[in-house]
Fold these 3 entries.
Entry 1:
Amino acid sequence: MAEQDTANYEDISSFTLTPERERELVEAQIECTFSWVSSQGQPVGVTMNYVARDGSIWLTAVRERARIRALQRNPRASVAISSAGTNLGSGKTITYIGDVVLHEDQATKDWFYPALGAIISPYPAPTVEAAIAQLDTPSRLILELVPRRSISFDLESLAGQGG
Amino acid sequence: MQGYEDVTLYALTPERERELVDKQVECNFIWTNKDGHGIGVIMNYVAKDGSIWLTATSQRARIKALRRDPRASVVISSMGTDMGAGKQVTYKGTVTLHEDQATKDWFYPAMGAVISPYPAPTIEDAITHLDTPLRVILELVPEKTIAFDGDKIAKASHEGTVPGAEA
C-alpha cells in the first residue's frame, strides 16, 4: 500500500518517515515523478531520473518540452519519490513541494551530467561516457527543485499498528 | 534534436501499456492546490473500465482541491515490477468523486486485494479499514496519455542509433 488514508485508514498523517529513513529513500531510489501545471491549468507528471544534491532535487529536460515553457511561466512544482523497486521495500514515499530554478551554465553541467550519467548507465546508456555524450546537447536545461515543504509516509509504521 | 533530446520517439506499445498498468499497484496522483501548485503523492490504484480508481477521505486537501478543479493526472512507473525500471505512462484527465454504495461494493474488495497482506493482514481487514464514513472514491477518466519505454531508448543507445549520436 502506498499512501492511503487509514485503524480505520482515515488519518495516516502521523505515519511519516523519520529524517534518517527519508535520506535513505532519496539515496536508494533513482527515479521520481516530477509534477507541474500546464499552461491550461492541467496538473501533469512524468517519471524522471534525478540527482539529489545540496538539499535540492536535480533533473533535466530539453527547452522544447512543454514542461519547460510551463515552468518559465509558473515555477511551482513537486517531486514524489517512492521506495518501490529499492531495497527498502514498498510503502515509503516522500513528496517535495517547491519552486524550480532552471540552469544552463557550464559549471552546473560539469557536475550534473556525470552524476546523472552514473545513474542512467548501463541502462539505458551503455557507459557513463556514452550517457554524458547523449545528455550534453545544446537544447538541454537542468532543473533544480528547491523544496519548501514535504509530505512523507512510512507504511511500515502503519503496518506495525496492526494494519 | 539529437542525443536524448527527443524521447517522444520511444513510446510504449498498447500491449506494454496494459501490462504495466496490470502489474503495478501504485501510482503518482497529481492535482492542483488552491495556490496553483501541482502536487503529487504516491497512492495505490485499481484499473477498471478504462479508468484509474483511487481513494482518500473527504477531509484531505486533495479532495477539496478536486471539488474546485477536477483536472488531475496519474503516473505509473514500472519500477518494482518484473518489467524492470524505465517504462512509464501518464494519464491526464478529469476526476469524478463517487460515494455511492454500488461503487464501494466492488471497489473496497478490489483495493483490499491490492493492500493485503501488506499493510492489512487480510482482504477482510482491509475492507473494514477502508469502509468508513469519510471515504470517497476517485475515478480518473483519462483524456490524454504520455507513454515512454526505456527499453527502446536502451536498444537505440546500445546499437548506436540514437538520433545525431555516434556513441
Entry 2:
Amino acid sequence: MSEPVGSLVPSGVERGPRLSFERERGVYSLLVTHDVAHCVVSIGQDEAQRTERNLHVFQMLTEAGIPILMIKLHRTAVSFGVAERFVERTAAVFDGTDFKIKTRHGLGMVAVKAASMRDVSGIMVDIADALYEADAQMYGTGDAHDTVQCLIDADRMDALVTQLRAVFHLEENAVQEHPLHQGVVA
Amino acid sequence: MKILVQKFGGTSVDRPEHRLLAARKVIKAREAGYCPVVVVSAIGRAGAPYATDTLVRVLHDIDPQVAPAPREMDMMMACGEIISTVVFAHTLHTLGHRAIALSGGQAGIITDPKFGDARIQEIRPQYLFRLLEEGYIPVVCGFQGVTEPTGADELSAITTLGRGGSDTTASALGAALRAEAVEIFTDVDGVKSADPDLVANARTLDVCTYAEVAEIAHQGAKVVHPRAAEIAMDHNIPLWVKSTFSDHPGTRIAGADAPSFVHNRVTGITHTGKIVYIRLEIESPIHKSRVEREVYRMMARAGISIYLVSFSPTALSFAVPRKDFPVARDLFDGMVVPIEHDPDEEGRVATFYIFKFSEGLDLAYSVQRPLLKSMERKIRIVDVPGSVIESCTMISVIASGHRNLPGVMAQIYTTLTRAGIAVYQTADSEMSVSCLIPESEVQRAVKLLHEQLFEQ
C-alpha cells in the first residue's frame, strides 16, 4: 500500500454515523422531588459551643436513623431537608432537649442538572431569576459540580419548572421525577 | 475487528524508557488479538520542553501584555500532541510495528469552533477503519480536533478540547469505533481511595461506576476526566484506568453491569481547590432575594462561578475560587443595589443597599458612602457588610447512596472536628458530602477521613 496521506479533514469518505459525543454545555435536566420538609435546629448563640452543638444535632439524627440532605451550617442553627415521612420522627428527636426545631412542611425540591456546573458562571443568576418570575421563595439550597437544588413551596414547583424550562430551553422530557430516600423505611 | 483504544498521558510518554513501557502495552494488546488505536498527550508536564504549558509560554513571553488570539493559541497548544504522536509512532516503528501518526483532524475529529474549550461534534472514523484494516497502529493526537469549514473557500481550523481533552479524545474514539474498551494509562495503578501523595496506603479500587469516577474527577482527583467518563457512560464503552508502569489490572469503570455493592458505599476521599468563602449580611428579609439576585448577576457578568451557596434569613454565603476573589471583592466593594418601593413611614421611596468589606477591603465603600449621605432623607441607605474566610479548601467524601444512609455527615463532621479541624460549611449531593475546611489542614483531614472510613 502507498503511504497514507491525510488531509486536514479526511475527504472522499462517507460520513460516520452521527453520534452525540459530548453533553451540551450548561443545563440539561430538571429533577423534581415531592414531599420534602425543611428543618432549622437552633443551637444557641454561644460561639464557643457551636461545633459541639452541631455535632450533637448530627449524632441525635444518626441515632434515630434519619437521613438528611441539603445540610447547612449557620451561626446559630443547623438546617437540613428531610423527607416528609421522617418529619415526625425528626421533631421527636429534639423533644425534651434544649434544641429548638422549626419545620416548614409542604415543600418540594427542584434540582437543576448541568454539565460541569462549576466551570460555567451565570447558572445561579438564571435560577434566581426563574425563582423570582415563578414567585417561589427558596428555603434551602444545595449545590454540587453538576446540580443546584432549590427547596421551595410545593405549590410553586410547576411554575418554577415552567420558568426553568424556558430559561434553559429544555424539552418536556428533560423533567424527571426523583423520589427521595428510596428503600429507606420511615 | 476487536478495537482497543489506549490513551497515554504526559508522564507515560515523557522519557524514552517510559515510552518504551507504553509501547509494550500497545504491542501486548496487539499480540492478544486487538487492533489498538493509541491516543497520546503532549510529552511531560509543565517545564518539559514540549509540554503544553511550555509552548503557551513561548507566545506569552513575546509580550505578556498582549493575549494571543485564541485560534493561534490552539494551533500552538496542538503542537505538543503532534510532536508526541510522531515520537510515539516512530517508537512503535523501531519495535517493528507499522504505526502512523495522526492529528485530531486527520483522525476525523470535528469540533465546534470554541477555541480552547471545543466540544467534539462528530467523528468520521472511516480513515481510521481503513488504516486498521491495513494493519497500521494509528497514533492519534489527544486534546485536539478541527472545525468544520463553513464555506467552500475556507479550510478547517485546529481546535483544542480544554481540560481533560486527551481522555475525552480516547473515549469519543472508543464510541465512534465501537471499541471493545478504552484504557486510560497513567502513573498510578487505577482509581485510588485517596490522593496517594497524602495517604500512602490509599487503596486501588477494583471497580467503580461511571458516576463515581465522574464525581471523583470533578471533586479533584486527576484519574480520568469527567467528560471522558460521561462519554463512556453515555455510549456504554468499558473504561479502564491502568498504570503504564506496572501490570496491576487497574480499575474497571462499570456501567449497568456494576456489582450491587458499589451502589451504597464510600468510594474515596478527594480534595480540591483554593477557595475563599464570602458571607454577606443582608438586613432586610423583604428585599433579600432581590439583593441576592444582583450578587449572582454581578458574579455571572464577571465570569466567576460560585458554589457552596448557603443562606439564612439575614445572610448569604458562598465560595469563589481564590484566583477570582480579588475581582469579586473589587466588584462588591461599594456596589449599590437600589430597590424602589412604596413610601415608608418616613416617606422614603427607595432603599440603597451598599456593600462593604471589612478589614481594610472597603476603599470604594469609604468613598461612595459619604456621597450618599445627602440623600438619606429621601432614600434609606443600608450597609451590606461582607466578611471573608480566605485559604479554604473543599474536602469531599464520595459516597453513592449516602442519602439513604443516616449518619454519613455525622461521621465526617465528628472525625474532622474532634481533631480540631474547623468545618466552615458543608454541601451534599446524591454522590458526595463536602466540607469547607482550612487549606492548611487538608493533608490531615484526608488522612483522618481515610483512616475512619476505609481502615477501621
Entry 3:
Amino acid sequence: MNFLFPLAAWGLLTLPLILILHLLRNRRQQLPISSLRLWRGLQQKRHGTLPRNIPLSLMLMLQLLLATALTFGLAQPVFSFLLDQPQQHIFILDTTTSMTAKDASSASTHFDAARHLIQQHIETLGPQDSFAIVSLNNRPEILLAGDAAQKPQALLALENLVPGAVGVDLIGALNLANGLVDPQQESQITLLTDGNFTLEDTPLPVVQAPLQWQFLPASPPPPTESSNQAWLNVSARPLPDGRQRVFGRVVNYSNQPATRTLRVWADSTQVSEKTVQLEPQGEAAQVWTLPASAQTAALEIVEPDLLPLDNRAELFLANTTRYRVLLVSETPETLNRALAAQPGLEVTVDPPSARAHNPADFDLTVFEGNGLPPQLTTWPGGNVWVINPPLGHPLLEGTSHQRNLRPNLTGASVLLDGVDLSGVYFGRALQLALPAWAQVDLSAETAASVNTGQAVNQDSPLIFHGSTGQSRVVVWTFDLSASNLPARLALPLLTANTLQTLLAPAPQSVAPVGEPVTLNGSFSVVVPGGNRLFPPLEQKSWQGQFTRTKQPGLYKIYNTKDELVAGFAVHAGSALESNLTTRLQPETLNVEHSTLNVIPPPIQYYQLWPWLAGLALAVIVLEGWLAWRK
Amino acid sequence: MRLKNPFSRPKESSLPLFDEAFLRRLEKLSFRTMPRLRGALLGERRSRNLRPALDFSDHRPYSIGDDLRHVDWNAFSRHEELFVKLGEATQSVHIHILLDYSSSMAWTPEHTPRQDRPAAVYSKWDAARRLTGALAYLGLAGGERITITPFGHTLAEGFGPTEGKRRVIPILKYLSDLRPQPPLKGGIQGGDLTYSLNTYARLHPGGGVLIIISDLFDTIETAALNLQPAGRKQRSTLDQTQGGLDEALSVIIPPRWQVLVLHLLTEEEVHPTLDGDYDLRDTETSESLPFQLNQHTLAQYRLRVRAWCAELQSACARRGAVYGGVLADWPLEQAVIPYLRQRGMVQ
C-alpha cells in the first residue's frame, strides 16, 4: 500500500492530542464521602490533578477512530498490489571520469558506490519489477535494461561497467530515461552522480516519473581537500632530425599549492624526472625531447591524488598507420610513382598475366587497363580502383573510346578539391553507360575532336565512384598514358583524394577518454590491459566508430595479419573532469531542477480514501447519536 | 470515564420514617436497664432500692422522721424495738438519646453501587432518625423519661425530657423535622463527642440510660496523625481512635450511667465498591484528597474499618458501655431490634 500524499501522516499527531484533551476534560471525579479520617492513612502521593490511566470510553474510541480515518483518507492510500502494479526503477548513472575519484576516507570510488546502490536494488527486484540504467555523459545511452529474470546477467554486466567520459548531457539523459518510463508501471528515476558538472539555465525536461537526485558521496568534502593534479594537452611533434618533442601541461586543481614529481618514459625507459611547484589552481607547461628510436612516450605524476586516472598520459610517437595496396597493371610505373608518394602505403604490383596476390589481403586493389580481369563478373569485396577499364568489360559496359577530352570543372565533386586540372587533357577515355550505383565526380566538356572532328557528349564521365555489394569502387575512365596528367602536380593530389575516398583516414593520435575513434577496415584493437577486441565482429551496428575508449592508455590496431598498422592514445585528463572542486551542491538544486519537473504517474490505483471518508462520516453520525442520546 | 448513575437513589427517601404498625409492635418491648440505676420515683420499673411500704419484705430500724404508719408494731410487741417495714420501690429511668446530626450522618453514596448490592431503602440519616424514634417510643411506652439531644460540634437544643406515650407524636414530628448540621466552614470537624458528652454529663448529673447514635467518625483524632511518620500512620490512627472514644466515655461512667453506643454506618462505608481515580471530598470539612482506588487500596481500607470497630468495641467494654454496630441498610424491625435484644438492651 502506498500513500499519494504521505505528508498527511502528520495528522496522526491528533491522536495524542485527543488523548490529552480527554485527560484534561476528565479530571479526577470529585466524590463526596462521609469522612476522610479513615482514608488518610491510605493517602497516595500524587502529582498534578490528572488521572494516570487514560479514561477509556466509547466516545474516546470513536474520536480516535475518526481522526485515524480522516488522516489516512487525507494521505490517500492506494493499493497498487491489488492491480499487480509492477515497479520500474530507472537509474541515470554518471559515467564520467570524475566518478572514478575516491574519497579521502574511502578506498572505493564514487562509481563503485553508485554501482553498489544499483546492485542492491537489482538484488531486491520483485518478480514483476524492472530496471534500466542510462549513462550520464556526453553521449547518454542505455547501459542495461531488464527485469528480475535477468538479475544474474544484469549484476555481471553491472560489475563490468567502466566509467570514462568527458562532460554530461543531462537533458539527453533525462529524455532517454523519460522514454523508458512505462506508464503501466510505477516508475522512479534516480540520478546517481558526483555532481561534477554545472546546470545551465536551460530548464530540464519534464519527466513522467518522480526524479530523485542522489549525490555520491552524500556529503561532499570541502574544496580544500579536493586535491587533484592532471596531465592536459599532452602531444608530440617530430623534429627534423627524427627526434620527438613531447609537450604537456600539468594542472593543479586544488585550492592549496602542491609539489609534484613528474616522470617521463620513452618506451619502457625512464628518461626524465623533475619536481614542479604548482600554485593553487595553477599549471606548469613541460617539454621533453625524446630520441628518434622511441615508439611510445608516457608522462606520469608520481604522487597519488583523488583522481588517479589523469595522473598518466601516453602517446604513440611513430606513425604506424599502413595501408596495403595491390596494383594490377601491365604498365604500373606512372601510377606506382603516384602511389609511392602517398604516406603510409605499401604498394604491391601484380602483372595481370601472373597474378600472385589475393585482393582480399589488401586494403585497396587498383586495376589499370587490362589489369581488370575480363572474366570478373562481380566486383571483388573491399576497395577497388579502376583506371582506364578495357572496352567491353561486363562490369563497365563501354561503347567506345572518346578522344581529346577536357574536364568540365563546373560540376566537379569534393574529390577534385585542391586539384588544378586546368590545361589537362585526356587523349583517350572510355565512353560507357554510368552504372546505377555510381555518382559522377568529373565529366568531360564538349570539345571538337582533333582527329575525327566528332562532338562528344558533355555528360561523358571521366571519374565516378559508388558502392555496390561489399565493394567501394572508384573509376577513372581515361588512359593516363594518353594524358598530360602524369606530368602535372594534379596527379598525386588526385591520387591522394581518391585514396582518401576509398581508405579511411588514419585515426587521431590522441582522443579524450570515452570519445569514439573512427576506424575502418578489418582489424583488431588491443586495449590497455592487453585485451584484444574485434570491433567489426563484436559490434552489431558497426559504422566505423570504435567506442570502447573508456580506459586511458595506448590502443594498438592490428590488421588481419596481426601487424601493427595504427595506434592512438586515450587521455583521461580534461578541464571538465579533473577539476573536482567545482561540484554541484545539492542545496543549490532549486525546485525547478528537482520536483517541479515531475508529473504524477498516470497509474490507476485502487483509491481507499472514499471508504475512509465514508467511515469517518459514519463515526461522526454515531458520535452525534450517542451525544444526543446521552 | 465514569458516568454518574442516573438511577441512583435520591438523597431524601420518600418513604415515611415511621408507620403505626411498626410502632405498635414496639410496644411489646422495653428497655432492660441495670437495677442499680437511679431514677425518679413513681415509675413502673423495679428498683434495687427499698422504701417503706405496706407490702414489706424487709425491716430496718426506725429513725426519726419515718412514717409511723410503716412501723411494724407486731415486731415492737415482740422485741420492744421499733422497726420500719420496707418494700420494693418502683422508678422510672431517664433515657438520654444523643443523636449525631453532623454532616457525615447525612452522607449518601453518589456513585454506582456494586451490582450484587441492593440499594439501601433508607439513608444513614433516615436510619438514625428511625432508630432514635423507635428507641424513644420504646422508652415512652415503658414509662421512661426521654430526652433527645442532637450533637455535632456542640450540643444542640433537643427534645425533652418528656414521658408518657402521648408524647410520642411530638417526638416523631421533631425527628421528622430535624435536619443534619450543615458543613462547617474553615475545616472544622462536624462532631466532637468528647466535648458533647462532657457538657451533657454536667447538665444531667442524675445519670440514666445514655444511647449514643453516631457514626463516631469524630472519635478518630487526626491532628496528631499527620505528624506521624508514614510507616506508622495506620497504627497511630487506631491508637487515636481508641483514645477518642475512651476519653469521651470517661465522663459517662456506671453506675450513674448505663451507656449504649450504636455505631451507625452504611454498607458503602464499611465495604466500599469504588474503582478508579477519585478526589475523595470530606462532606464535613470539604477537604479533598486524590486517590487511585483499586482492590488493594480497598482491602486496606476494609481492614482499617474492621480494626477501628474492634477498638471501639474494646473501648466501650473498658468503660462499661455496650457497643452495637448497626448498618443503616439493615431493616429496623427485622435486624436492628433483634440485634439490640441479642445484646440485652431490650427485652
